[in-house]
Amino acid sequence: MANTPKIIVVGGGLAGLAAVIKIAEMGGNVDLFSIVPVKRSHSVCAQGGINAAKNLKGEGDSTAQHLDDTIYGGDFLANQPPVKGMCDAAPGIIDLLDRMGVPFNRTPEGLLDFRRFGGTLHHRTAFAGATTGQQLLYALDEQVRRYEAEGKVKKYEHWEFLSAVLDSQHVCRGICAMDLRSMEVRTFPADAIIMATGGNGAIFGKSTNSVVCTGSAQSALYQQGAYYANGEFIQVHPTCIPGEDKLRLMSESARGEGGRVWVPKTPGDKRDPKSIPQNERWYFLEEWYPKYGNLVPRDVATRAIFKVVFEHNLGIDGKPMVYLDLTHIDRKTLDRKLEGILEIYEKFVGDDPRDTPMKIFPGMHYTMGGLWVDYNQQTNIPGIYAAGECEYQYHGANRLGANSLVSCIYGGFTAGPNAVRYAKNLQAAPSNGHFEAEKKRQEENNALLVSNQGDENPFRLWRELGELMTKNCTVIRYNKNLKETDAELVKLLERFRKVNLSDRTQWANTSVVFARQLYNMLQLSRVIAQGAGMRDESRGAHYKPDFPDRDDKNWLKTTKATFAPDADEPRFEFEPVDVSLIPPRPRKYDAAK
Amino acid sequence: MADKKVLFKIKRQASPSAEPVWEEFELNWHPGMNVISSLMEIAANPQTKDGKTTAPVTYDSNCLEEVCGSCAMLINGRARMACSALIDKLEQPIRIEPLSKFPVVRDLAVDRSVLFENLKAVKAWVPVDGTYDLGSGPRQSMQNQEMTYPLSRCISCCCCMEVCPQFNEDTGFVGAAAISQVRLFNAHPTGAALKQDRLAALMGDGGIQECGYAQNCVEICPKDIPLTQSISQVAGDVMKQAITDLFRK
């Protein structure tokens, strides 16, 4: 083994960059692959903040309390020791980000300010305006640029991961990737690789996710033998701005700073919202959940909005929308703490949310599920690690707001050093033939796509996929519909074989790239639909009216999907959850815990 | 209203060396359209107005909420983010072209790596000792945070460089975005350790002296960053540094 380990990191969001920094600091060499320039990664979209129990507000907050809120919020599905590790590390991570220059909001004394977020009664969320993810990503991007200038990191931007290169013992020896400009397919050797490829929102068509969040890389690894865990747990964020091209997030911080959700009590009330008197408004979250009010966890708020809109028929003007109201808060405070998100609403809707209540509706936001990893962030394939949203470890059945940024950085900080340690003990590969074989396999895939003669447009197939998955695999799930969904997915996979690309060129061909992603999305969708079908209970974001209660006796288990190549579909097994620190108890937000 | 149409003229270029050509597209109007959602629709039905099958348009995009900086292009001649360019607010036919001062990759996608190279040259980072636990960062006033945060919201879209008359191959001008980042990092208590290096990087050819104060940058910036303020302040610092250097020699 060479003295300087060579690690490949795939993905340049928070988790990937965190891993890169640790590896470079330990003296390792990194090749960093990203579809977009890393500064444009999806982490920039995180708005509200990052959780750490710094206890700077005299509330007696503690990392133990952060752990309990996270486990309880996740409905006891997360393995508890890694979550404890994350909560214990969080205050140090905030300090580090502060030292790196993140412009966190300050108190008059010059200390970090903290705001409230969902699923906790403490001020635990540090924030930089309402663009915290952007600010955190930039801080890590700057440190990586520093290592790049020192020659310790080489970036491959505008490259897409296609697959891992596995040797005859099924040990990872590198990756196969494609230059998105020249379309060249190439293999890159490495002692270990870290996947940090984010979420899979594109499976649902429109979501709050960025364009690159297709889950394609995770799916490719799943098809190569990696376990995919808890795929059925999909977070639908209660407050999004419906749009033509995507659902834009309206951060939970709006409610953390005092925003209130309501609908007019009269169905189809056409009055200007501001002229509707208080006693004719229904603040349903505050009424149903007096202790947490508007700051119940996202799954709870989302189901409440669905109930009000679809069962009580009280959506604004009869449409699927409710008000999120900030107009009672003074403009200066709003600008200082929330400007970034208010600006998004203004630019994309055209109304000023300082003057008029926002119209919002739930939208697909986050996957709690992802690549299965052990407590060292290693997948079941030796040499492949994963960190960030692409893995499943920290959020159980529902993620609390402002825990994603901390889980990304903690996951990257854990994966990086573990990958270096692994690399230092790695034995040489039995042979090198697998590199050429993998490259050939991927080139053949591309050639097939470019020459295929059929009548299906990949972008149209994708729309159908998104509508299907959003309809049946998000907020409310029925076994009959899930079964039909899987059957429809099989049909879509059949139709994919007839895909016809109107672009057959060999330069910056986005159709080829998208078609590849679509195939992987379709395969991963079956994991989500079938996993949801099996789990006959309701837990966190997974809700079945026919099985309305949590069933710990049968389902306090991690779902693990593996790909069966011969049958071309997933197989499932289940693993007990590590509840060694906090015994499971019922989860109720209508009273204090 | 059912047959209301939206007309686009899009400048296409198959490769960096190919000749550009214009193609026209016509879409059915519906509420809430923006330029990116329109390009997505074209991809789902890649036909020109005359019914000719063509390739989906290549363009950069990612977040679609004007925070990643990917989708800058010229829309009706103006450099702006395509995701926030709402169709109902644009005059038709809507002309879409790639940014003109960066090498075209294909169609509307351009190569803006020059900005990231410039950020390297001006050492746009805080030189922390390491990532191990060293306690909390330096205290900072609310006022300082309120000054630096807007500077830190730069999305590297490069619109400020596109509209700058001085940003061209002759001058090699570094551009407003990188200069504003110098101001940001010099204002950080720890970041200030590299202040001299940063100012030195802005001296001479292609440095801050190239700025002609046209003020186009501040006018075009989608994030309303006070770029001309940054340029004046950093220019003053560079001048002071140059004089100090002179007396040290």
Structure in words:
The complex is a heterodimer of chains A (593) and B (249). Chain A is α+β, with helices and mostly antiparallel strands and 593 residues long. Chain A starts with 5 loop residues before the first strand and ends in a 17-residue tail after the last strand. Chain A has helices at residues 14-25, 63-73, 80-99, 132-149, 216-223, 253-256, 284-288, 298-311, 331-349, 404-424, 433-451, 458-472, 479-496, 510-534, 552-555; strands at residues 6-10, 29-34, 50-51, 114-116, 123-126, 153-157, 159-166, 172-179, 185-189, 192-195, 228-229, 234-241, 248-249, 260-264, 281-282, 322-325, 358-367, 370-371, 384-386, 557-564, 569-576. In chain A, strand 4 (114-116) and strand 5 form a beta hairpin. Chain B is of the alpha+beta class. Chain B folds into two domains: 5-110, Ubiquitin-like (UB roll); 113-248, Fumarate Reductase Iron-sulfur Protein, Chain B, domain 2. Chain B contains eight helices and seven strands, in the order E-E-H-E-E-E-E-E-H-H-H-H-H-H-H. Chain B has helices spanning 35-44, 113-121, 142-152, 159-162, 176-186, 195-201, 216-220, 227-248, and strands at 5-12, 21-28, 72-75, 78-81, 94-97, 104-106, 109-110. In chain B, the strands form two sheets. A five-stranded mixed sheet of chain B has the order 2-1-5-3-4, covered by helices on one side. In chain B, a hairpin with a 2-residue loop joins strand 6 (104-106) and strand 7. The longest helix of chain B has 22 residues, at 227-248. Chain B is elongated and about 70 Å long.
